[in-house]
């Protein structure tokens, strides 16, 4: 059961504000990340992908649940 909230409109306003802020920052930063990724050499991009896969394996190994 969800906890009781004394001021639901205040909570909703806070959630909406943070959601809008994160969306605005992500929309602003995303083109720069895409430009950087499109201009990476293939070898560096491959090394980055291997590190992501290895990090995923390690993270999955120590996950709880």
Describe the structure.
Helices cover 78% and strands 0% of the residues. The chain has 2 helices and no strands. The model has no long low-confidence stretch (mean pLDDT 90).
Tally the helices: what do you get?
2
The helix content is over 70%
Query: Mean pLDDT, rounded to whole units?
Result: 90
Number of strands: 0
Residue runs with pLDDT of under 50 for 5 or more positions: none
Q: Write the H/E string, N to C.
A: HH
Cα-based radius of gyration, to the nearest Å = 20 Å
Separation of the first and last Cα atoms: 22 Å
Question: What gross morphology would you assign?
Answer: flat
Approximately what portion of the residues adopt beta-strand conformation? under 5%
**Major β-sheet, in short?**
none
Find the structural class using helix and strand composition.
mainly alpha
